[in-house]
Amino acid sequence: ALFFAVKNLQYKIFEFRKGKSTILKNYTTSLKIKPDNNILKVVKKGSVLYFYSNENLLTEIGPINLVGKSFGISLWGASSIAVDDFIIKGSKLKINLAANLSYNTPPENIGAGVNTAFGEITPVVTADGKGLYYTRNYSPENKGGASDYQDVYYSAIQNGKWNKGNNIGFPINNDGPNAVSSVSPDGNTLLLMNTYDGRGAALGMGLSMSYKTKEGWTIPKIVNVRNYYNKSTFNEYFLSSDNKVLLLALQRDDTYGTRDIYVSFLEGDGVWSTPKNLGPLLNTPGTELSPFLAADGVTLYFSSTGHPGYGKNDVFVSKRLDDSWINWSTPQNVGMPVNSKGVDGYYSIPASGEFAYYVSEQNSLGKTDIFRIRLPSAVKPNPVVLIYGKVLNSKTKEPIATGITYRDMDSDAESGIARSNPYDGSYKITLPYNKTYSFFAEKDGFYSVRDSIDVPNIT
Description:
CATH class of the largest domain: Mainly Beta
Distance between the termini: 53 Å
Strand content: 35-45%
Largest sheet: 5 strands, antiparallel
Mean pLDDT: 90
């Protein structure tokens, strides 16, 4: 926020950002200020602000990053002010739409099996497109009843229709706010918002992981990210399909706006690296949130208030250009009808790239609902292959729960990590086309067998 104060023929300009007040120009006397009535005007040109009194230029400040959709008058102490007119004028910003963008079908509310009179948010579709995790706010079916802020639900699709979602219960849900941020392609790992203690009770903000066992989901364990902190009261996270990259929407000391998107990498000791800002092309002086990295590992969808759009929050898409994670293509608005005058975000896409699931207030059954829309090629991710496998005891054919590693045979770089299902030994992993991969499973007490698979390019 920026403040322009006038007192006793003097003016002062100061900024209030991230809880800290900074004087940009201290009290300065000017004959252009009248003792009684003044016409004050602020004009923004590029990143420079020009301040006028009675059509006379007082000073200019810049460059300065300001973004927002709220304007007003604030008073401190025993003071009063009378305003005759408050006029806001602005030029229309150009929305950077994806080229040749055309939606052939309208958005589809995914139905009363999932959406209710309560708010449904944070949809996370499984890689095979057959399952959906989501969060419901203040529902009587929540673990703590109607006063329970958020619980996680799960629905499966059958004959093209989403079944009635069920509360997935303890230990994922407790009396705190609960939400799934990501599900691994094999369906055996959940990345969760917030943290849990050893008994499954709510601890606070942060991120956790839970793993599927024969007994159900494990009590979530805190994900250890080096130098993790978040100055915002909100947070979102995303785990990449190869289970090796985290995206985080946080407010930190180097944040350009209210919240930025950061990246963190899994290191050899099982700890994640210090979050790295994705840079000013993606992140703005506004708010960036709900990051989703497609299975191709390069196509990023996110919601933003800082890039020009149609409403409060719009969904954008950008492509990663190299492995530095700070070079991105210019973000493109995914357009209407996905984006509306309200809040739009929380994109989630299965490995096929066929549909996008997202949250919107527009034409909802209650508050916010979950919608899906068939993706046009202009905003689709690059194609990947979803590989199915099983880990079995070669002698008994009994399933084995363990980790599976895939490596690119040309570079010997690790391409992805999966976990097998404890019930039947099955797993899934998404991999780019036009490569040959080696893969192997490891478990104490067993000999590991290596094999390879060729994933030819699609034609």
